[in-house]
Automatic annotation (TrEMBL):
Gene Ontology CC: one annotated term: plasma membrane
Transmembrane segments: none
Catalysis: reaction(s): L-alanine + NAD(+) + H2O = pyruvate + NH4(+) + NADH + H(+)
Organism (species): Desulfosporosinus fructosivorans
Lineage: Bacteria, Bacillati, Bacillota, Clostridia, Eubacteriales
Full protein name: Alanine dehydrogenase
Gene label: ald
Length: 372
């Protein structure tokens, strides 16, 4: 198969879809790997490092897209990229289609085979291609939140861990999955008081166990959320209903109840955001805005700024799937792996992921029908 690794164009998106080692594995399996000129630079990989393992460097983005049977990316395509795709081309990347009507329309019109990293399911119902970036973003959410609480960033001027004789900050995390657990690890490590809110009793029991009483666990309902949002110095949004728009769990009134200079980091922004006052996606170059005196941070590609760590972690997870798709062809690979089949979001002008179809009022075609 001819596989194209495209250079990312999103603001400060420094990751790349494959490391040279990953590209090398695909070349050794007999595939042709085309890498867009300078695609790896943001993650510290030169064109030469890809050329050395047998990949071909392509200077022109359009030629790369025209020649490739499968495009491997990191982020969902932006408007400037829509026209580059062609019918029957496989797109293997994060897609986050539920809140992105224009992108969905473009992929349907182009009849792209869109396999989304974030909806592929692994053993025990895990999300193996989302998890590594959720680990990164969860950890980052606390270091970013800690900085935003500093006065020069319009925060209330408090240190997350406090000091002896002065109380530490209250961190409230809504969603105790991969992002939430990693955020809690960092916040506990920095000495903050930490509360995790989730709607799964099993998950809360697990978190209570692993943190050994160093976090408070709370069942998710609007009463509890309102109570804890009011107390939060740093509020982290980390909920997910796979493939669907994030539920808006924190209302405008709840945000108004927060103290001036408190901080919200809504990691769930890539699925549309879980906080009512998060009304825009921000960028690494302009990451925050103020509403009701509260700092709002809503960057949808947080791991893009710690690109070297993230690119290694992402390729570790995606490569086995990329190899399956390339070796067997997409159809057989999906037939052989029901979890990979859950990644198919669009095919030949049809939406094949139910939550995306429901959120966008579009007709839904089950993957089983496509594979029959
Ligand atoms: N902004 C960024 O750069 C990044 C964003 N993300 C996003 O972060 C979000 C969270 O991802 P993960 O932690 O991997 O998902 P996950 O599936 O591991 O965890 C989600 C948690 O939310 C909980 N949940 C669902 N509905 C809830 C409700 N009504 N109340 C409370 N909890 C609820 C679930 O029980 C689960 O524990 C996703 O939208 C993901 O795409 C991930 C990486 C980077
Ligand atoms: C998960 C995701 O959207 C990201 O890593 O950017």
């Amino acid at each position: 198969m001819i596989i194209g690794v495209a250079k990312e164009i999103k603001n400060n998106e420094n990751r790349v879809g494959l490391t040279p080692a990953g590209a090398g594995d695909l070349c050794r399996a007999g595939h042709t790997v085309l890498v867009e000129h300078s695609a790896g630079l943001g993650s510290g990989f030169s064109d030469e490092s890809y050329a050395k393992i047998g990949a071909t460097i392509i200077a022109d983005k359009k030629i790369l897209f025209d020649r490739s049977e499968m495009i491997i990316k990191v982020k969902e395509p932006l408007a400037a990229e829509y026209d580059l795709f062609h019918e029957g081309q496989i797109l293997f990347t994060y897609l986050h289609l539920a809140p992105e009507a224009a992108l969905t329309k473009a992929l349907l019109e182009k009849k792209v085979i869109g396999i989304a990293y974030e909806t592929i399911v692994g053993r025990n119902n895990t999300l193996p291609l989302l998890s590594p970036m959720s680990e990164v973003a969860g950890r980052m959410s606390v270091q970013i939140g800690a900085q935003m609480l500093e006065k020069p960033w319009s925060g209330k001027g408090i240190l997350l861990g406090g000091v002896p004789g002065v109380e530490s900050a209250q961190v409230v995390i809504i969603g105790g999955g991969v992002v939430g657990t990693n955020a809690a690890k960092m916040a506990v490590g920095m000495g903050a008081r930490v509360t995790i809110i989730d709607n799964s009793g099993d998950r809360l029991a697990y978190l209570d166990d692993i943190f050994g009483g160093r976090v408070t666990t709370v069942m998710s309902n609007s009463y509890n959320i309102a109570k804890w949002v009011e107390k939060a110095d740093l509020l982290i949004g980390a909920v997910l209903i796979p493939g669907a728009k994030a539920p808006k769990l924190v209302s405008e009134e709840m945000v108004k109840s927060m103290e001036i200079g408190s901080v919200i980091v809504d990691v769930a922004i890539d699925q549309g955001g879980s906080i009512e006052t998060i009304d825009r996606v921000t960028t690494h170059s302009d990451p925050t805005y103020m509403k009701y005196g509260v700092v709002h941070y809503s960057v949808a590609n947080m791991p893009g700024s710690v690109s070297r760590t993230s690119t290694f972690a992402l390729t570790n997870a995606t490569l086995p799937y990329a190899l399956k798709i390339a070796n067997k062809g997409w159809r057989q690979a999906l037939k052989d792996d029901a979890g990979l089949a859950r990644g198919l979001n669009v095919y030949n002008g049809q939406v094949t992921f139910k939550a995306v179809a429901d959120d966008q009022n579009l007709p839904y075609t089950p993957v089983a029908e496509i594979l029959a």
